[in-house]
Specification:
By secondary structure, the protein is mostly helical. Helices cover about 80% and strands about 0% of the residues. Helix 1 runs antiparallel to helix 5 and helix 3 packs antiparallel against helix 4. The model has no long low-confidence stretch (mean pLDDT about 90).
């Protein structure tokens, strides 16, 4: 299933519709959230809950608005699982 996710991400990333959506909408999200975090942190009285919420949104946005990065992250996750499985099963097949 994870390999199918990686394939799907690469397919979507290559589409013209994704490129247009990214340019028109998603490319604005991260800078907007960064600006909001900075503005909130610059206030005399900081709303800690708001800062944490904005930081969580910023982490999410950085992860999911960049499909290339998301695809690489999922690919590394898949490789990690493969490596763990390889380490758990001895080369001679004995369990």
């Amino acid at each position: 299933m994870l390999s199918q996710i990686v394939e799907a991400i690469h397919g979507v990333e290559a589409s013209e519709a994704w490129k247009k959506l990214k340019k028109l909408v998603l490319d604005q999200i991260v800078p907007n959230l960064e600006r909001q975090v900075f503005n909130e942190a610059s206030k005399d009285e900081v709303d800690v809950k708001k800062i944490y919420r904005l930081q969580g949104q910023l982490i999410w946005a950085r992860k999911y608005t960049d499909l290339k990065r998301l695809g690489e992250w999922k690919k590394m996750e898949l490789e990690s699982i493969k490596n763990q499985l390889h380490e758990e099963i001895p080369r001679d097949g004995a369990l």
